[in-house]
Amino acid sequence: MSGIADNAGSMPAFMDYRRLGARYKRLIDQFQASRQVHAYLLAGPQGIGKKTFARYLASTLLCESEAKPCGTCSQCSAIFSGKHSSVLEIEPVDTKTISVDRIRDLITTSSMHTLDGRERIVIIEPTESMTSQAQNGLLKSLEEPDTNVIYFLLSHDTSSLLDTIESRCSVFKLTPWPADILTEILARQSCSGDEAQRAIALSGGNVGEALAILSEKPEGQQETALRQLLSVTTAKDAVRCSTMLKDMAGNAEAIMLRLERYLQQCMLVKSGLLPADALKSTPWSEVIQTATMDDLITLTDQVFQTRRRKMSNVNWQSNIDQLAGKLLEAKNKWQRW
Question: What is d(CA 12, CA 198) in angstroms, rounded to the nearest whole number?
Answer without folding.
Answer: 19
